[in-house]
Amino acid sequence: MASPVVAQRPAETPARPGRRRRPGIGRRDHLIGWLLIAPAMVYFIIFLLYPALAALYYSFTEWDLHSAPIWVGLQNYIDLFFDDVKYPHFWKSVQVTLQYTLVAVPLTLVTALAQALLINSIRRGSNLFRLLLFLPVVTAEAAVGAIWRWLYDPQYGVINAVIGLVGIPRQNWLNTPELVIPALAFIAAWQCGISMIIYLAGLKSIPESIKEAAVIDGASPVQRFFKVIVPMLRPTTFYLVVTGIIAALQVFGLVYVIFSGGGNRSVTGGPEQSGLAYVLHIYLYAFRYNAMGAACAMSFILLVFIMIITFIQFKFMKQEAS
Amino acid sequence: MIRRVTGAAAAALLLAGLTACGGGSEEGGAGSATTELTYWMFQDRTPQAGEVVEKIRTDFEKANPGVTVKIVKIPKDDYNTKLGSALAGNTVPDVGILDQPLVSRFAQEGTIKEVPAGTLNEADFWEGALNTNKVGGKLYGFPIDHTAVALFYNKALVPTPPKTWDELKTISAAIHAKDAKVAGIVVPKGDGYGAWMWPGVVGGAGGSMVDEAGKKILFDQPPAVEALQLWVDLLPSSPREITDSDQAFANGLAGMMISGPWDVATIKDQFPDLDFNVAPLPYKTTPAGNIGGENAVVFSKGKNEALAWKWLQHLTNSTNNTTLAQALGGFPVNKVAADRDAATFGEQQQAFLEQLKVAQARPALPQWIQINDEIIAPALESALSGKMTAQESLTDAAGKTRALLGWNS
Fold first, then answer.
1. Which of A12, A173, B109, B246 could in theory staple to A183 by disulfide, Cβ–Cβ 3.0 to 4.6 A?
2. What domains can be seen in chain B, in order of their start residue?
3. CB A64 to CB B259 under 8 A?
4. Mean pLDDT, contiguous 10-residue spans, chain B (409 residues)
5. Interface probe, candidates B241, B242, B251, chain A, greatest A C-beta count within 10 A
6. How far is it, in rounded angstroms, from Cα B186 to Cα B183?
7. Of the candidates B81, B87, B190, which has its C-beta nearest A287's C-beta?
8. ipTM
């Protein structure tokens, strides 16, 4: 399976050539340093590096998890890309995941920023609202599935009742192929608590003096928002976009619980595969169809894709506050 | 200096903690004098089920001195994953439950043993249940408990359940005509679950899914097309916006639904006021049904083979099979047990017992789950959503299945 890729920018401390101490191999501090990071290293090697390398190996094999893997070279990759008999829904899962990412990430960020601004602007009770808005993040995924299946229910759902008030006809949200992605993205936006907290921290770090200067210069609230707050939050936004895209491309739990509950035990990805997220597709091949080799290949395709996307973002997106 | 000592001590502590986390596995405490048989099964559904299994286990140990049976219970959702890892890592159980669709794959790979002649008397078991253990005509496992789907009907809306497809269509139309807010029947969907039920309907028109021996696809033939057309024809009187609502049948929003015995308990528990019953599936020419349930197999890498078969005989004999099946949430596969104990099953359960007698096993092909989920389910959906006709979508699906299996016809 794809190991989660964590985007981290190394803390760049300006080098001071003359005074830099070279870490000597023989130094005892050095040994203690190694010992201190040893648990983390052991964890990294056993639970991340080794499985990732093993998955890379298995991606070149045909393996059903219990008999000996058969080396097939690049065949899994070639079949995934070109053989729509063997993998009829591979490209569909790519399409679904990209669409989901394109809708969910902006929606989540806008929601998170709006929530952060609101919380930042109130004087009293901000802790309470922070807690309430963060609750969806700590809610168990199965409960999230149950709650939202009920909210989206075509007969009794609260959402249909609300849109009915403004005259929009009832929708069968989770069973209409065109509505599945927006419905899922909406849930993701509801769960934006972590982004909200990070935005809140970003907002708190904007110096009062800058905001005051803008006020004195006669900037309207809208101007202050677009000319001061948004640019000052750019490093935060960059971080959230990068991690948000990585998370969205790996979406799994949400689609799994939404489409597996309600007595319907199959998880083939919603109506006409409209919710067949890429990782759900991997899961089906790995654990339902016993094609672990192909599943590993899919994981690696995703890993490489995420690396490319993240690289492009680092290369071309503005990261610094201005 | 002090900093260095505390640093080293902290590092040592961390490492010690890590190793403590690492070495946690221990062996089950079986003495060397006894033979230990390991049996893997799904996690109990209820505490009472655990007691039934425990009683069957102790009975077996009493009858076989010097033998202990170690039962390992694994949540159903994790079972195949755990079993896969165990098989890869050589920590295989001697004997255990195996998902029906995996029997053919494991048999072809030699992961499980063929049932030795004389171990099981075929006449003692329902044919459909037994056939779920057959691959290429050979028997590879014991059916333990099985289940089927049948027709649930709301007595207030459906006084007499339909026996034929025509009656089904008429009743469904009448229900919806009488009250536009109520659907006739919850029509299954084009997903893996719907595709699992569908062969029971195909069988009702005298058809079947494939001819494994002749390597022929049959689900694009008239009986299958008619079966899918039946579902399409039911949709106008059973709109999705009603039936997609959670628990539409139990809430009284649909007159009928196709489901399994698990829903009997759920509905009785959560909707005690609903007056419903269950009837065998309506058919066109032949009573038929699908089948699902638990089989048990003996693993090639396991030990104690003779004892393992003996254990499976014990689980499926006429004495134990009913209580075990009831505990596991299914129905006995042993004919003597099933006929003798039919009355001990509630009113709503009788239809499932009837269905098991006419149930047909799904094709014994290793790729079947994939075909079911990835090819047949979308084909059903294409027809149900009106994107294609039943014949077009099934012809297309049959072509894809042939290509996947490398069959010519």
1. A173
2. 35-147+292-358 (3.40.190.10), 150-290+367-405 (3.40.190.10)
3. no
4. 54 49 40 81 89 95 94 89 84 92 88 94 93 93 94 96 97 97 95 92 96 93 97 97 93 96 89 96 96 93 94 95 90 93 89 93 90 94 96 97 89
5. B241
6. 7
7. B81
8. 0.81
